[in-house]
Known about the structure:
Order of helices and strands of chain A: EHEEHHE
CATH topology of chain A: Alpha-Beta Plaits
Strand order of the largest sheet of chain A: 2-3-1-4
CATH architecture of chain A: 2-Layer Sandwich
Low-confidence stretches of chain A: none
Strand content of chain A: 35-45%
Oligomer: homodimer
Mean pLDDT of chain A: 96
Shape of chain A: globular
Number of strands of chain A: 4
Distance between the termini of chain A: 24 Å
Largest sheet of chain A: 4 strands, antiparallel
Helix content of chain A: 25-40%
Amino acid sequence: MNPSFPAKxxxxxxxxxxxxxxxxxxxxxxxxxxxxxxxxxxxxxxxFLGIESVRDEQGLGITVSYWTDxxxxxxxxxxxxxxxxxxxxxxxxxxxFALRVAKVERAYSL
Amino acid sequence: MNPSFPAKxxxxxxxxxxxxxxxxxxxxxxxxxxxxxxxxxxxxxxxFLGIESVRDEQGLGITVSYWTDxxxxxxxxxxxxxxxxxxxxxxxxxxxFALRVAKVERAYSL
Lengths: 110, 110
């Protein structure tokens, strides 16, 4: 999957899940494979609108996924494979992270 | 300025400005200097809460700035030096970008 960047999204309102994270130096290969699998899996969920993800050379990353509504976010959180991926993230892939759920009220582009 | 990552923020609600951008290959030095100047200037504005910014080797970047309310965002948009920086961004530094204003409703961290 090679999503467009910036994501092409409908007009607001919609929801954003903002996920800044710091990678450990552990298991880059396993992490990359899981990140791709989860991006692809997320994109097939009901209510998924798009995703933007960037990570720099120091391991600082920001992923923003976009959803039609809160129910879609809750549904994706309840996905079993996603839950397992989050568990591995907490255990070995992320040194730190935050997760913020926000309602996008307005949007512009170049 | 070397902000904490993820940003340390108060409890929601607060506002996020999500800014995914694609750098041109033009004027890296000027761009970097302006990015630092604007981050520092933003951090002195009323209502500023924090900022997270990441750019990868391909030039894809996501910056998220956090604000207490919509009025603070409008105030920062009206800043003259910020307006001049945005003009240069549109003219030479960015090949593409989007800007999304969102109300953060809930947040978690590791």
